[in-house]
Design goal:
The chain is of the alpha/beta class and 330 residues long. The protein has ten helices and twelve strands. The protein is globular and about 70 Å long. The protein binds iron/sulfur cluster.
Length: 330
């Protein structure tokens, strides 16, 4: 991504949640939901973030759109660190950065008609009169494939797919540059999922949007992403161009995740890799590489030293001792 322009730079971002004293004895008293994560998001791209439940991907998304404060780290949006901005200072950036949620029904006020839901953020801008506001609402509804008839209806009168279109329309009202979408199609039927994904791609082309697309579903992420980051226990373990990640995964965890979905590569098959056990608790992650308790390739060094994310060929970075310099301390 050398000559691409950065929209966001995430630097050493951490989110630690305190645990009530006395609940866990011994090691620390906090859950490291996101632990020292750094990456860039480039203008016009879709960066997919995948990981199992508890990997920290949703927490990461909420911090980036500033719905949640970080414990440490920087979120640099077009050159400005927005992480520590207060509500007033954040105002100028708020309209540029929006979020689409998994459950549009829960995120849309059930007592408000669609016209109000979409018109509310437009009214706050105070730059449009009543007629212009109505035209803008109809224009945005048209962009997400809904007609003006939707204006007078309530969210419960729509299907799941239509409600997600309304959620996307609401995110678009401020003409954002960046949208973080957290599992935006997970609650939808498979047939509707592709419609919403295609809509998001069309809107991205039309409005030059940049997306962070968070999902546990590797097939969905493959469909929409330009680059993909894989999270495990609060850290990015591999990140790179979609083609590299899906055709040549380097990290054993990425290899295991991908082995569980149907793949059409040159030999038409990929052997399924079965991981041992469940992911460890983020409140008490294993020392060394956090994946070593489940990794089929783990060796001594993995139990002692945490691997750093190292850039390899063609923009693909991986945090695994299998690919790093020899361990010199033992
Ligand atoms: Fe597996 Fe070791 Fe690589 Fe971790 S560092 S993924 S345990 S081989």
């Amino acid at each position: 991504m050398g000559d691409k322009e950065k929209l966001l730079e995430i630097r050493n971002l951490k989110k630690y949640f305190p645990i009530k004293k006395g609940l866990i004895k011994g090691r620390g008293n906090q859950v490291k939901a996101v632990d020292d994560v750094s990456f860039n998001i480039y203008k016009g791209e879709t960066l997919g973030i995948v990981g199992e439940s508890g990997s920290g991907k949703s927490t990461l998304g909420r911090m980036i759109v500033r719905l949640m404060d970080a414990t440490e780290g920087e979120i640099v949006f077009e050159g400005t660190n927005i992480e520590h901005l207060g509500t007033r200072q954040m105002g100028a950036f708020r309209k540029e950065i929006q979020m689409v949620f998994q459950d549009p029904f829960a995120s849309l006020n059930p007592r408000m008609r669609v016209g109000q839901l979409i018109g509310e953020p437009i009214a706050i801008q105070k730059t449009f009169n009543k007629k212009e506001r109505a035209e803008k609402i109809i224009d945005i509804l048209g962009k997400v494939g809904l007609t003006a008839e939707a204006i007078t209806k309530f969210p419960h009168e729509f299907s799941g797919g239509q409600r997600q279109r309304i959620g996307i329309a609401r995110a678009l009202t401020m003409n954002p540059k960046f949208i973080a979408a957290d599992e935006p199609v997970s609650a939808l039927d498979v047939s509707v999922q592709s419609q919403v994904l295609n809509l998001m791609q069309d809107l991205q082309d039309e409005l030059n949007l940049t997306y962070l697309f968070i999902s546990h579903d590797l097939s969905v992420v493959k469909h929409i992403s330009d680059r993909v980051g894989v999270m495990y226990l609060g850290r990015i373990v591999e990140i790179g161009p979609k083609k590299n990640i899906y055709d040549n995964p380097m990290h054993p965890y990425t290899q295991a995740l991908l082995s569980s979905i149907p793949v059409t590569n040159f030999d038409g098959k990929r052997e399924k890799i079965y991981l041992k056990g469940e992911p460890p608790s983020p409140s008490d992650p294993p020392k060394g590489c956090a994946f070593h308790t489940r990794c089929p390739n783990a060796f001594n060094r993995c139990r002692i030293e945490r691997p750093e994310l190292i850039l390899h060929d063609d923009g693909q970075s991986v945090a695994c001792h299998l690919y790093s310099a020899p361990f010199t301390n033992v």
